[in-house]
Amino acid sequence: MSRIISIHSYRGGTGKSNITANVAWLAARRGKRVAVLDADLQSPGVHLVFKFDKSRLTHTLSDFLFNRCELEEAAYDLSRSMDIGEGGGALYLLPSNMSVEAITRILSEGYDTAKLNAQLTVLMDSLGLDFLFLDTHPGLNRETMLMTAISDTLVILIRPDSQDFHGTAVLVEVAGRLKVPRVFMVANKVPARLPAADVAAKIQQAFGYEVVSVLPFSEDVAILGSRDIFAARFPNHAFTRGLQKVTARILAGDDPAEVS
Q1: Domains contained in the chain, number
Q2: Which residue, 88, 80, 81, 99, is CA-closest to 33?
Q3: What is the pLDDT of residue 195?
Q4: What angle, 0 to 180 degrees and rounded to 10, lies between the N-to-C axes of helices 162-178 and 142-149?
Q5: CA pair distance 41, 26, nearest whole angstrom
Q6: Contact in structure between 143 and 114 (CB atoms under 8 Å)
Q7: 151 assigned to some structural domain
Q8: Is 17 helix (H, G, I), strand (E, B) or coil?
Q9: Is the pLDDT reported for residue 113 higher than 80?
Q10: Is 84 a domain residue?
Q11: Statement: the pTM of the whole predicted model exceeds 0.85
Q12: Scanning 59, 77, 133, 148, which has its CA 20 to 30 A from the CA of 173?
């Protein structure tokens, strides 16, 4: 059964696109058929992490929303270029248009979320996906809420910052009202001087949801600057091990005992 995974944060700068791309890549390396949809139409960028070759670009998610193509036509198979391996997995990207014209039109007109949501199941069936990852726009708006409502799992990213905690409380309340089946928390950019166990306990106490990983602040991540899949470059890094925990928990379904 295919599942939709929304990865979201209250504020920008949490590493949402970077984590989405890395977790999708790790899932594909485990033999899963996955796709990443750049639903952050106001500020798209996840394609940069995948080093997407713009010469291949014919259609984008924006084109689908503007009735210029079918959704599947905006899906690009990155399995070979991203070295998924021979385990039977696949990795697709559905990028958004980064042109000023497309972004301005989205900002001024919005888009038909119901149309997009209705085609996601069609897309998953046609590509034979196990998981569809939605890299959402940070904060709360109508489009993000409607996409979250159809998700099987919501992963909320949070930094150890008072503004993040304040805003995340709103996200958690909305997730409860939308009755998202599974909600996980991931702490990111956590300084080494803050014990990971203490950070996880504080977040779980504040919001009541399982904290699946505490990702350390890393200069290596900052230096790479979202120009590549970090887990591929640094497979034994502490940050990668944290990403593997997130991936394993998402793939495990409803039983955390399945995590390996």
Answers
A1: 1
A2: 88
A3: 96
A4: 50
A5: 24
A6: no
A7: yes
A8: helix
A9: no
A10: yes
A11: yes
A12: 133
Instruction: List pLDDT tens digits, range 204-226.
Output: 999 999 999 999 999 999 999 99
Distance between CA atoms of residues 178 and 150, nearest Å: 9
- Asked if pLDDT for residue 141 goes beyond 90, the answer is no
Which whole-number Å values give the CA distances from 66 to 39, 152, 248, in the listed order? 14, 27, 36
Strands 131-135 and 153-158: unpaired
Residue with tokens 């900002």: 107
Q: Can you give the pLDDT at residue 153?
A: 95
Q: Please, are residues 155 and 7 in contact by the beta-carbon 8 Å criterion?
A: yes
Residues in the chain: 260
Mark 24-54 as b/e (b = at least 16 C-beta within 10 Å): bbbbbbbebbbbbbbbbbeebbbbbbbebee
CATH of the domain at 155: 3.40.50.300
Residue 218 phi/psi, 5-degree rounding, is -135, 125
The answer to whether 16 touches 163, Cβ cutoff 8 Å, is no
Structure tokens at 138: 């940070």
The predicted structure's pLDDT at residue 258: 52
Judged by DSSP in three states, 124 sits in helix
How many angstroms separate the CA atoms of 136 and 144, rounded?
7
* 260 belongs to a structural domain: no
Spatial separation of the C-alpha atoms in residues 254 and 260, rounded to whole Å: 14
Residue 165 has pLDDT above 60, yes or no: yes
* Residue 60 forms part of a structural domain: yes
Q: What is the mean pLDDT of residues 64-93?
A: 92
Highest average pLDDT, of 39-43, 110-114, 122-126, 171-175, comes from 122-126
Question: For the chain, how far is it from start to end, CA to CA, in angstroms?
Answer: 20
Residue 197 belongs to domain spanning:
3-254
Residue 85: which pLDDT band, with cuts at 50, 70 and 90? confident
